[in-house]
Amino acid sequence: MDERKALLKAHEQEQTSASEAGILVQYGGERVVDGCVTSGVNSDAGLPTHNRISFENLENYLNEAFSEIRSESEASFQAITHAATAYSAGSVLSRAFPERYLALLVTLAIEIPVVLVISGGGKSICEVLGNKKYTILLAFLPLCSAISGNVGLQASNLTTRAISHELVTRNNFMTWMKEEFCVACALSLAVSAALASLALLWVYAFTNSLDFGFAVTIATAQMLSILAAGISGTCAPLFFAFVAGRDAGKWAGPLETAVQDVVGSSAMVYLSIYMLRGFVQIGWTPHAHAHCT
Questions:
Q1: Are 260 and 148 a contacting pair, CB within 8 Å?
Q2: Which of 79-88, 120-129, 241-250 is predicted least confidently?
Q3: 158, 263 in Cβ contact below 8 A?
Q4: CB count, 10 Å around CB of 288?
Q5: What's the mean pLDDT in 265-277?
Q6: DSSP secondary structure string for all residues of 97-120
Q7: How many angstroms separate the CA atoms of 136 and 157, rounded?
Q8: pLDDT tier, 286 (very low <50, low <70, confident <90, very high otherwise)
Q9: Where is the SLC41A/MgtE integral membrane domain (predicted)?
Q10: Cβ pair 292, 131 in contact under 8 A
C-alpha cells in the first residue's frame, strides 16, 4: 500500500514539473509561469501574458527556421550525415544520377537562351565592328564568364560559411546582403577597369587603332555580369536551403552559373549593339561597314 502511494505521489510530482516547465497553468484566475504565481499581465514587458507567449513562439519558430541552414538541430545534422554517408558509399552511377544529372539538365535548359543570344545578335555586331573585332569580342566572352563565375563562387562560399558560424542570422541577414552587394559593386568597378585596359590594348595589337567604345562595352558587360554573379552567389544557398529544401551543394552552383552567363552574354551581345552604335556616332568606335553573313 505504501509503495502504491509513493508511486502515485511520484507521478503527481512529474505532472506538476511538466506543467511548471514554461507552461501556463490556470489557478483561480491567476497563472503560474515557471513555478511562480503571477497575474494575467507580464510585469516585465507590460504586455498580456498570452501575447508574450505568442511573441516567444514566433521567435522560437524563426530561430528554428534559421537553425536548419546552420545545421544546429540533431535531426538536420543526422539527415546531412546520412546523405553524405549514402553518397560516399554509392556507386559511380548512383552518385551521378539522378540529382546531379538533373541539376546539369536544368543548367542546360537555362543556358539555351545564351546560345540564342549569341547566334541572334552576332550579325548586327559584326556589321559594326567587322570580322576581326567581332572575333575579339567573342574571345572576351568566356573570359568575362570565368571572372564573374569566380565572384559568384566566392559569394556563395563566404555566405554559407558565415551562416554556419552564426555570423549571419535573421537579425542581420539584410545587412549582410547589402554589404555583399556593395562588395560586388566594388569588384565590378575594379575588374571592369582592368578588363577595359586589356581590351583596348588587345584591339590595338590586332588593328593598330584605339577603340575606346569597344573597351567601354567590354567593361560594361563585365560589370553587369559580376553584379549578377555576386547577387546570385549570395542568394542561391539561402534559396535552396529555405525555400526549395534541396542540397545547396548540388543546386546552387548551376543556378549561379546560369544566371551570370545569361546576364553576361545578353550584355555582351545585345547591349553591345546599342552601345557600339552610339559610340560610332560620337566617334569612339570606327564603323567597319562590314558585310557579315
A1: yes
A2: 241-250
A3: no
A4: 18
A5: 84
A6: TTHHHHHHHHHHHHHHHHHHHHHH
A7: 32
A8: confident
A9: 142-269
A10: yes
Query: For residue 63, how many other CB atoms are within 10 A of its CB?
Result: 12
Round to whole Å and give the CA distance between 280 and 61: 59
DSSP 44: T
Query: Whose CA is closest to 184, among 234, 120, 141?
Result: 234
Q: Determine if the peptide bond prior to 98 is cis (ω within 30°).
A: yes
Going by DSSP bridges, is the β-strand pair 25-27/30-33 parallel, antiparallel, or unpaired?
antiparallel
Site of grid cell 567597319: 288
Look at 281 and 15; give whichever has higher pLDDT. Answer: 281
What are the backbone angles phi and psi of residue 70, rounded to the nearest 5°? -85, -5
CATH 1.10.357.20 in the chain: give the residue spans: 93-282
CATH fold label, 93-282: Tetracycline Repressor; domain 2 (1.10.357)
The reported pLDDT for the residue numbered 55 is 57
Instruction: With residue 268 as reference, give the H or E element that holds it.
Output: none
Phi-psi category of residue 19: left, alpha or beta, with phi > 0 → left and psi -120 to 50 → alpha: alpha
- What is the Cα–Cα distance from 230 to 89, expressed in whole angstroms? 35
Rg (the chain; Cα; Å): 30
pLDDT in tens, 130-179: 888 888 988 898 899 889 989 988 998 888 888 778 787 777 878 888 99
